[in-house]
Structures are given as structure tokens and as C-alpha cells.
Amino acid sequence: MDFSHLDIAKFLPHRPPFLMVDDVLSIDDSHVTTSFTIKPDCIFNDNGFFNEVGLVENAAQTCSSIVGKSFFNEDDLEGEGTKLIGFISAIKKVTLHFCPKVGSKIKTNATLQSRFDTDEYSICTLTCIITMEDVELLSCELNLVIQELK
Question: Where do the domains of the chain lie?
Fold first, then answer.
């Protein structure tokens, strides 16, 4: 499927200036790859660098799209079928190598490790690696809770 014209803001509850994903490069039921260009006005800009909190937030937003995808119909490319809310319920592990400079483009790869669904919400564990030009910036393991707003 071509995601080049997919507006990720229609599928995530985040809005600028808190949206930390620009594009979905690929996605399926267990893996997603996104990209994000760090702009000078980014709220996680810390003395010319995208800080640690911004990297973790980028990871969480990327990760949430895997499980969030299952709440939408496959042909709903406008995100009109549902509204979601999600949050980090636990950060199990984070390894930070370095923070990228403002203006850099990062690529984030996330993989679903486990998922538990109820009628009200989904709880999932995901691993994530953020790179810039194939150099690892951060790796982490997160637990997320995703819930459909009624």
C-alpha cells in the first residue's frame, strides 16, 4: 500500500506542536517505519538538538500506529472511522546513544512484541529503534495503552 499521501495526524490524537511523526513509510500488523524531520520550532528542541524526551515521544507515536491501525477499516485512508487516545503505561528500557541536531531527518522502526485486547482498550509491548542515516540514536521497549473514544 502507498502511504505517501497518508496524513498521519488523522490517525494519531497528537497535533502540532506535539506531533513527532511526519510520514508512515511502511506499516503492517506487527511492524511500522516512520520518518520525522526535526524543525527549528520543535518543542523538544534543546540548544539545537532534538532532546531525549522528543526521541521517546517519537518512538511512542510510531509504536502506537501499529495497534492503532487495527481500530480503522483498511480502506479508511482519511481516519474518519474512529478516534483514539493512547499513552505510555511503562518504559521498560531505553538506551540513548546521542541526540540528533535540529534539521535532521530520523527514521523510526517499531515491532509489536505482545498485545492484549479487551472490549475497552488494548495493552501492548513494543520495541523501537530510531536511526539517522543508519546510525542508531535510541532503542527502547515500551508498554502502551490504546483506547477508542466513544
Answer: 8-149
Digit-coded pLDDT (tens) for 117-141: 998 899 999 999 999 999 999 999 9
The string of pLDDT tens digits covering residues 17-70 is 778 999 889 888 899 999 999 999 999 999 999 999 999 999 999 998 888 776
Please provide the CATH number assigned to the domain covering 8-149: 3.10.129.10
Q: Which residues contact 53 (CB under 8 A, 6 or more apart)?
A: 44
